[in-house]
């Protein structure tokens, strides 16, 4: 015990470093809301007076509402489909002995590391060769490529977190696969499913790189922002819009991660990467 | 339904996991209402066999029949068997009542009837007021009873138990052994019980299959296994055993004459095996079948002289280790500690061992 | 409960064979069950990744012709890549920037991961969630935030100007290689911390006690025990930062300026304003091949390190 506490004794410089690290991690992003309430066209110190007019202006724009609606539709669809597929895939990966599992899992997780620009241009080329017009559907397909592995990665620790014998007990007591899923598996992985829905929604909602190559005439919210960045006079309203997106994203992701925190600890005590 | 002559009939079952053979050509039958144990060290295949009965694993070849029905294509949820899992697998998101009633959904009973059945089960497992507890508020012994109740409420033809007492401490385990045996008598269901604890298997079972490396070494009653082990592995796995090298001197219809190193010539009842003269065999003799004496027996019975090497006092009995000429390892002798004073323990003291030849077993 | 009630019924169902060859196959074979569940995900990813990638490979052997393509197969684009020094220069600068980002990220994240692994005892989850939170949120907006901070009239410059520390705005902040490196390192920090944390957390604490017991001070203990045992985490963190950043184009586009441009920008331009898709395809393939080669080296390194420490 004394050796333990010797190793774990508080380390002041390290504490300071951790504090600075966290502040630096969040500070740049916090400037967006700060300047979004600033009554000036320019993003610079010293601050002028407080205003909410950039937000009010935002509400009056149809283009913003359209883009928001597009992003929400894509996000919800992507979250639902990738989480559904993810549940099945995570169960298969954690529960069954099967040949070729290693390479298959590697292939599924590939989109998490391969630069997204590659998937973007590859899908763009495919769609143009097939003569499929770019639309929110093509954006959703692109987002699914990233969200599916994320969903699986979130759900695997959930499945690993409860013993397979719980599902076997259900089968043993007379329930088939369908009922076992509804009565045992889903309640057990429920927090993971919720977390997966929230995280994949946010990833899709905030995603820009794939949307850049794959969206047609209907822009998603990040695409809309990208378009506005060219106009200096739009800067304050972009700040306001960005602030809303960031706050909402942070809240959703934090809730999702927090609901699922049991599984995070399970995955980090095992092998994650 | 070929060759089906028991309530459970396992016929020439093999099981491979990849290239590893977990079960090697096992055949056995279990009678109706029997308390049947699969006994062996971990990795011997006993749990694999149990999981094949439950339907979680499939035989690579061979067939399992339960009550006359072949089981190969019957998935776990269609089988007339229920299982008590090693870790009990109590559903953590349900309370005790819902756990016990879990399997009743398909029967579509009125709620009142279902509640009555659950109450009856709670009564049977002596936890009448625990219905609304959550799984994480229960002790190991309570979880084990709930796992039992959850399975028994479905009136299975066979109840499978996978080391259900392994997680309990010694005192609770002994109590649960008695309760389990009484319960099995009450409900009259066939129990197939997996354990690595030979004492537990001997206490509980009507018959025991001793397994090793995926094979059944011997299938017998507890008494049969203990008194007449077939082969050295079973003999040494069940209880303590002294082994002596021996040579066959002759055989009659009833008995076989063997010269054993350290013991002299023994005449052992043996009717089944046929031995040739001069064949090398082993003689097995339980420690409690030997008697330790201060002086050579005067009644003329067989005896051998040795030197007391050491002794271990175990309360109700003591173990003595005696070195005998012509036998490498010390011979273990187990004797009850009588109230009139124990056998005087003095290392290096000369002692005499006596036994009855019928108590010895010949092993090839 | 009496004998009869328990013995009489066979309520858990009479055993009967399950109908259908598919049902039998599913029940008999774990492999069949597993792959059946994996089918939706595998079919989707197969179609959405392998097919487009195949077409991308084919297209890289085409040539652009006005608004269409000349579909005769030729290595023209690849020859162009090796003939014009601009491509090679851009690729090597890309790997240079990604390399710098990787080193900076891992160096800066390691102490943080160490802190959470060894010095945070309560609310560990809260810390982990807090650190990884930004990673899940809009990449575009995080880059945009850095533009606000580093801009010509941005946070830093205007703050320094208003307190009178500088006379004119610092120009090197925005539109430079440094700006790209800072932004990328910041953006990928959350991604790098997890593998580092996992490898540190996995270290058996009794090993550290043993090292202390055998006379190592904190510094020697760190270099002799902690660092070597966490090397697999360092390597996977490096890989997880290096590979995705090589393909980035938002950060260079918003903050890079002329000497901060990366290969991703050129690929994007080939599919946009330049409108030479086959060349863009060829550049993508070349980038993928380089990444594959570098990953292979990293993985070999990991295997080597694993072998050394276990």
TrEMBL record, chain A:
Keywords: Cell membrane, Membrane, Transmembrane, Transmembrane helix, Transport. Belongs to the binding-protein-dependent transport system permease family. CysTW subfamily. The chain crosses the membrane at residues 16-37, 74-93, 105-128, 134-156, 235-255. It is a multi-pass membrane protein. Residues 68-256 form the ABC transmembrane type-1 domain. It is found in: Cell membrane. GO terms for cellular component: plasma membrane. Its main location: membrane. Pfam families: BPD_transp_1 (PF00528). This is Inner membrane ABC transporter permease protein YdcV. Gene3D superfamilies: MetI-like.
From TrEMBL, chain B:
Residues 8-238 form the ABC transporter domain. Keywords: ATP-binding, Cell inner membrane, Cell membrane, Hydrolase, Membrane, Nucleotide-binding, Translocase, Transport. InterPro entries: AAA+_ATPase, ABC_SmlMolc_Importer, ABC_transporter-like_ATP-bd, ABC_transporter-like_CS, Mo/tungstate-bd_C_term_dom, NA-bd_OB-fold, P-loop_NTPase, PotA-like. It catalyses: ATP + H2O + polyamine-[polyamine-binding protein]Side 1 = ADP + phosphate + polyamineSide 2 + [polyamine-binding protein]Side 1. GO terms for biological process: putrescine transport. It comes from the Bacteria. Signal peptide: none annotated. GO terms for cellular component: ATP-binding cassette (ABC) transporter complex. Belongs to the ABC transporter superfamily. Spermidine/putrescine importer (TC 3.A.1.11.1) family. This is Spermidine/putrescine import ATP-binding protein PotA. The lineage of its organism: Bacteria, Pseudomonadati, Pseudomonadota, Alphaproteobacteria, Rhodobacterales.
TrEMBL record, chain C:
Belongs to the binding-protein-dependent transport system permease family. CysTW subfamily. PROSITE patterns: ABC_TM1 (PS50928). InterPro entries: MetI-like, MetI-like_sf. Its main location: membrane. Keywords: Cell membrane, Membrane, Transmembrane, Transmembrane helix, Transport. GO terms for cellular component: plasma membrane. It is found in: Cell membrane. The chain crosses the membrane at residues 37-62, 95-118, 125-145, 179-200, 221-243, 281-305. This is Putrescine transport system permease protein PotH. Gene3D superfamilies: MetI-like. Residues 91-298 form the ABC transmembrane type-1 domain. It is a multi-pass membrane protein. PANTHER family: INNER MEMBRANE ABC TRANSPORTER PERMEASE PROTEIN YDCU-RELATED, INNER MEMBRANE ABC TRANSPORTER PERMEASE PROTEIN YDCU-RELATED-RELATED. One of its GO terms (biological process) is transmembrane transport. SUPFAM superfamilies: MetI-like.
């Amino acid at each position: 015990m004394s050796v333990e506490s010797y190793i774990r004794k508080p380390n002041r410089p390290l504490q300071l470093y951790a504090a600075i690290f966290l502040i630096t991690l969040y500070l740049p992003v916090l400037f967006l809301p700060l300047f979004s309430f600033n009554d000036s066209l320019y993003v610079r110190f010293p601050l002028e007076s407080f205003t909410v007019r950039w937000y009010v202006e935002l509400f009056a724009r149809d283009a913003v509402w359209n883009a928001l609606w597009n992003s929400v539709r894509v996000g919800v669809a992507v979250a639902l489909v990738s989480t559904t597929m993810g549940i099945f895939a995570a169960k298969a990966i954690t529960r069954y002995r099967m040949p070729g599992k290693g390479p298959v899992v590697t292939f599924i997780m590939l989109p998490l590391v391969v630069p997204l620009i590659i998937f973007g241009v590859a899908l763009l080329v495919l769609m143009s060769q097939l003569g499929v017009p770019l639309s929110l559907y093509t954006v959703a397909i692109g987002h699914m490529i990233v969200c599916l592995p994320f969903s699986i990665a979130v759900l695997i620790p959930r499945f690993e977190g409860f013993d397979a014998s719980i599902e076997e007990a259900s089968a043993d007591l007379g329930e088939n696969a369908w009922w076992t899923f509804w009565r045992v598996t889903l309640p057990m992985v429920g927090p993971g499913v919720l977390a997966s829905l929230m995280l994949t929604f946010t990833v899709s909602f905030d995603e820009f790189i794939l949307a850049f190559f794959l969206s047609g005439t209907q822009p998603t919210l990040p695409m809309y922002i990208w378009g506005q960045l060219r106009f200096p006079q739009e800067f304050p309203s972009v700040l306001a819009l960005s602030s809303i997106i960031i706050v909402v994203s942070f809240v959703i992701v934090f809730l999702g991660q927090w609901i699922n925190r049991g599984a995070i600890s399970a995955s980090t005590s095992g092998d994650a990467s | 339904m070929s060759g089906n002559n028991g309530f459970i009939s396992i016929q020439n079952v093999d099981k491979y996991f990849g290239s590893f053979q977990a079960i090697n050509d096992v055949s056995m039958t279990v009678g109706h209402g029997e308390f049947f144990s699969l006994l062996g060290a971990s990795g011997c295949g006993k749990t694999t066999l149990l999981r094949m009965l439950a339907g979680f694993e499939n035989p690579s070849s061979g067939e399992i029949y339960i009550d006359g029905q072949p089981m190969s294509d019957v998935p776990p949820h269609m089988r007339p068997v229920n299982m008590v899992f090693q870790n009990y697998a109590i559903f953590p998101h349900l309370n005790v009542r819902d756990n016990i009633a879990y399997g009743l959904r398909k029967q579509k009973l009125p709620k009142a009837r279902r509640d009555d059945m659950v109450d009856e089960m709670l009564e049977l497992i002596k936890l009448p007021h625990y219905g609304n507890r959550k799984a994480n508020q229960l002790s190991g012994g309570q979880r084990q009873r709930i796992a039992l109740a959850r399975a028994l409420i479905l009136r299975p033809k066979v109840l499978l138990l996978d080391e259900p007492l392994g997680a309990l401490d010694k005192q609770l385990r002994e109590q649960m052994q008695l309760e389990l045996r009484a319960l099995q008598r009450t409900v009259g269901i066939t129990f197939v019980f997996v354990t690595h604890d030979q004492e537990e298997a001997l206490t509980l079972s009507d018959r025991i299959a001793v397994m090793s490396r995926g094979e059944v070494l011997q299938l017998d009653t507890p008494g049969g296994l203990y008194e007449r082990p077939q082969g050295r592995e079973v003999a040494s796995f069940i209880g303590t055993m002294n082994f002596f090298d021996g040579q066959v001197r002759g055989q009659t219809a009833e008995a076989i004459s063997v010269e054993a190193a350290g013991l002299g010539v023994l005449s052992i009842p043996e009717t089944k095996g046929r031995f040739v003269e001069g064949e090398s065999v082993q003689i097995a003799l339980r420690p409690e079948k030997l008697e330790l004496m201060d002086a050579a027996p005067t009644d003329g019975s067989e005896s051998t002289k040795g030197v007391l090497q050491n002794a271990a006092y175990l309360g109700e009995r003591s173990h003595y280790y005696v070195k005998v000429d012509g036998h490498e390892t010390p011979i273990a002798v187990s004797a009850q500690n009588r109230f009139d004073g124990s056998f005087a323990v003095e290392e290096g003291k000369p002692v005499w061992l006596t036994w009855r030849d019928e108590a010895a077993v010949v092993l090839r | 409960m009496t004998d009869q009630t328990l013995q009489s019924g066979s309520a858990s169902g009479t055993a009967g064979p399950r109908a259908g060859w598919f049902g039998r196959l599913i029940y008999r074979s774990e492999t069949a069950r597993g792959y059946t569940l994996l089918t939706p995900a595998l079919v989707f990813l197969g179609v959405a990744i392998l097919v487009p990638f195949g077409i991308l490979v084919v297209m890289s052997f085409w040539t652009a012709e006005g608004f269409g393509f000349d579909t005769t197969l030729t290595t023209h684009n690849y020859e162009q890549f090796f003939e014009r020094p601009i491509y090679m220069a851009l690729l090597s600068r890309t790997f240079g920037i990604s390399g710098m980002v990787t080193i900076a990220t891992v160096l800066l994240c390691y102490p943080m991961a160490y802190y959470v692994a060894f010095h945070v005892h309560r609310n560990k989850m809260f810390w982990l969630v807090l650190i990884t939170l930004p990673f899940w949120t809009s990449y575009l907006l995080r880059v945009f935030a850095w533009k606000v901070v580093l801009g010509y009239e941005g946070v830093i410059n205007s703050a320094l100007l208003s307190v009178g520390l500088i006379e004119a705005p610092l120009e090197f902040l925005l539109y430079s290689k440094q700006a790209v490196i800072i932004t990328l390192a910041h953006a990928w920090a959350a991604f790098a911390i997890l593998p580092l944390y996992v490898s540190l957390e996995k270290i058996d604490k009794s090993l550290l006690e043993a090292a202390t017991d055998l006379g190592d001070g904190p510094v020697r203990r760190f270099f002799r025990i902690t660092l070597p045992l966490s090397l697999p985490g360092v390597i996977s963190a490096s890989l997880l930062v290096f590979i995705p950043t090589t393909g980035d184009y938002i950060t260079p586009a918003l903050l890079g300026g002329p000497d901060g441009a990366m290969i991703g920008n050129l690929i994007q331009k080939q599919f946009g304003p330049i409108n030479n898709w086959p060349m863009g395809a060829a550049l993508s393939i070349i980038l993928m091949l380089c990444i594959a080669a570098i990953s292979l080296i990293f993985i070999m390194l990991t295997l080597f390190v694993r072998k050394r420490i276990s």
